[in-house]
């Protein structure tokens, strides 16, 4: 096989690797979409499928932790999602480059000012999953935890009703 035929094969017969990469990351019909907007010292979560369901989340200082909570990993409000549902998280930043990383879910997506990135996953097991910003984004970089709590659908519906009533 000569250079011309191998170039033809790579250029015209094989799919575009970037197209395949984006197709693998796309979730066509998510059951829930959550927008995570990163600020320097806190994160805002907006549940776009629910009218007016949004809240800010920041770390809990050590002196306010309860027994059993993890230092530098706990937040005052957790991102709650239902199990067995395709979830899409839209990720952005309003100031500097951040990252939304939850290793146990296999998710790490950069949050950039002026750009909306997405991450997709299906929550299978219940539990609490911890992550952190994995970019060196300025002062107090280590105080930017992410907590995702996966619950059964009926618990999620009760939680969302309570949040909307508050």
Automatic annotation (TrEMBL):
Q: How does it sit in the membrane?
A: Multi-pass membrane protein
Name used for this protein in its record: Cytochrome c oxidase subunit 2
Cofactor(s) recorded for this entry are: Cu cation
Please give one Gene Ontology molecular function term for this protein: cytochrome-c oxidase activity
Instruction: Spell out the InterPro entries in the cross-references.
Output: CcO_II (IPR045187), CcO_II-like_C (IPR002429), CcO_II_C (IPR034210), Copper_CuA (IPR001505), Cupredoxin (IPR008972)
Q: Where is the Cytochrome oxidase subunit II copper A binding domain?
A: 29-162
GO-annotated biological processes: ATP synthesis coupled electron transport
Q: Which PROSITE patterns match?
A: COX2, COX2_CUA
**Membership in a protein family:** Belongs to the cytochrome c oxidase subunit 2 family.
- A UniProt-annotated Pfam family: COX2
Main site of residence? mitochondrion
Q: Which organism is it from?
A: Paracheirodon axelrodi
Give the EC number(s) listed in the UniProt record. Answer: 7.1.1.9
Species classification: Eukaryota, Metazoa, Chordata, Craniata, Vertebrata
Q: Which UniProt keywords apply?
A: Copper, Electron transport, Magnesium, Membrane, Metal-binding, Mitochondrion, Mitochondrion inner membrane, Respiratory chain, Translocase, Transmembrane, Transmembrane helix, Transport
Question: A single GO CC term, please?
Answer: mitochondrial inner membrane
State the compartments where it is located.
Mitochondrion inner membrane
User: Which reaction is catalysed here?
Assistant: 4 Fe(II)-[cytochrome c] + O2 + 8 H(+)(in) = 4 Fe(III)-[cytochrome c] + 2 H2O + 4 H(+)(out)
Family annotation (SUPFAM superfamilies): Cupredoxins
Entry superkingdom? Eukaryota
């Amino acid at each position: 096989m000569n250079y011309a035929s191998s170039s033809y094969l790579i250029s015209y017969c094989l799919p575009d690797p970037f197209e395949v990469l984006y197709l693998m990351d796309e979730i066509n019909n998510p059951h829930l979409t959550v927008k995570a907007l990163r600020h320097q010292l806190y994160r805002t979560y907006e549940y776009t499928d629910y009218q007016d369901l949004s809240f800010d989340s920041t770390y809990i200082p050590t002196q306010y932790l309860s027994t059993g909570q993890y230092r530098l990993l706990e937040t005052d409000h957790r991102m709650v999602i239902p199990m067995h549902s395709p979830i899409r998280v839209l990720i952005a930043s309003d100031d500097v480059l951040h990252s939304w990383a939850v290793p146990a879910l296999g998710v790490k997506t950069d949050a950039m000012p002026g750009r909306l990135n997405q991450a997709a996953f299906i929550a299978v097991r219940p539990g609490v999953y911890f992550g952190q910003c994995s970019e060196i984004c300025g002062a107090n970089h280590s105080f930017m935890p992410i907590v995702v709590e996966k619950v059964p659908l009926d618990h999620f519906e009760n939680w969302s009703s309570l949040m909307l009533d508050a």
